[in-house]
Amino acid sequence: MWRVVLFLIFTLIIVPLTAFQFDTAPTVEQKEILFPLIWVYLSVSLATFLLSTLTKNYSQVDKLWSLMPLVYSWMVAVYTDFDGRITLMAVLVTLWGLRLSYNFLRRGGYQWRFWEGEEDYRWAVLMAKPEFQPHWRWVLFNFFFISFYQLGLILLFTLPIVKCIGGGPMNIYDYIIAFAIIVAIIIETIADQQQWIYQNDKHRALKGEIAMTPAFEKGFTHTGLWGIVRHPNYSAEQAIWIIFYLFSISASGIWVNWSITGCLLLILLFKGSSDFSEDISKSKYPTYADYIKDVPRFIPWL
Fold first, then answer.
1. I need a labelling partner for 70 at 20 to 30 A (CA). Which of 57, 285, 286, 287 fits?
2. What does the pLDDT read at residue 157?
3. 42-78: string of b/e by CB count within 10 Å (b at 16+)?
4. Which residues of 103-121 are buried (b: 16+ CB within 10 A; e: fewer)?
5. Half-sphere exposure of residue 52, counting CA atoms within 13 Å on the CB side?
6. CA-to-CA distance for 170 and 164, rounded, in angstroms?
C-alpha cells in the first residue's frame, strides 16, 4: 500500500512537469486566476486535514469531491466575465456536481453537522492494516494523500477550464464535447441508480421484507451496466474528465497541454481505488473472483 501511495504522490509531481514540456507556459491571464485557485485548494486541504483528524471521520474529501470543481469552475467563469466556452464548461461541471452530490446525500454522506455523515468503509479497513501502525503513520497518510493529494487532484482535473482562457472562439467541437459529457453523466447516473436499487433490495431481502433470490445472494451489483463492466460509475467518471480535457484542445489547438495532468492522474487513482475495493469484495463474496474473470474492469470487451 505504501508503494501505491508513494507512486501516486510521485506522479502528482512528475506528470505536471512532463506535460509542461509539451506546451507553452500559462499566460499572464491564466496565472492571475491560477494563484487564487491554488490558495483555495491549500486552505481547503488544510481545513479538511484538521477536521478529519479531530472528528475521526476521514470522508471529508468525499463530501468535497463533487463540490470543489463547481467552486473552481465558477471562479474562472466570473474572472473571464462569463466567456461563452468557459460558462458552458462551468454549467456542465455544475450538472455533474449536483448529480453526484445528490447520490452522496441519499447514501448518508451529508449531515446538518457537516463534519458528520457516513464514512467510506474502506478507510477503516485501510487504517487497520499493519502498515499504518503506529497511528502517526495514518496521520501522515491523511495529511499527504487523503487531504492534500486528493484535493490537489480535484483542482488538476478542473484545470482545462483555465487553459481555455484566451483561447479561440467557440466552434462545433465544443458542442460535440458538451454532448459527450452529458452522455457520460447519464451513464454514471444509470450506474449509480442500478447499484442503489440493488443494494436497497438486497438489504430488504436480508431483513425478510422481500424474497431472497440468487441475485441477492451474490451480494454485489452484477447486472445491467454492472454486467458489462465491473465499475461503470468509475468508467463514466473518468470519461467525463477525459472529455472535459478536450475543451482545452478545442480552445488552444494543442493536443498535449499542461492541463492534461488531472485526467491522467485520475485514471491512476481509480485503478488503485478499484484494486483495493475488489480485494475487499473478494474476501466478502465467494463469487466475486469469478465476476472479475468474466467481466472487464472499466472498458467493455477489454
1. 57
2. 97
3. eebbeebbeebbeeebbbbbbbbbbbbbbbbbbbbbe
4. bbeeeebbeeeeeebebbe
5. 28
6. 10
Q: Which of 252, 4, 253, 265 is nearest to 126 (CA)?
A: 4
Q: Which three cell numbers stand for residue 264?
A: 491522467
Angle at 54 (CA atoms; ends 49, 57), nearest 5 degrees: 75
- For 193-214, the pLDDT digits (tens) are 999 999 999 999 999 999 999 9
For residues 29-51, give the mean pLDDT. Answer: 97
Extract long-range pairs of 220-225: CB within 8 Å, 24+ residues apart. 220/281, 220/285, 220/288, 220/291, 221/194, 221/195, 222/291, 222/295, 223/194, 223/198, 224/190, 224/191, 224/194, 225/187, 225/190, 225/191, 225/194
When mean pLDDT is compared across 108-117, 136-145, 281-290, the lowest value belongs to 108-117
Contact call for residues 184 and 240 (beta carbons, < 8 A): yes
Q: Is 88 exposed, middle or buried (0-12, 13-18, 19+ CB in 10 A)?
A: buried
Q: Could you give the CA distance from residue 224 to residue 34 in angstroms, rounded to a whole number?
A: 41
- Asked if the bond preceding 296 is cis, omega within 30° of 0, the reply is no
Identity of the residue numbered 130: P
pLDDT, residue 1, reads 58
Cell, residue 224: 445491467
Q: What is the pTM of this model?
A: 0.93
Distance CA 90, CA 78 (A): 10
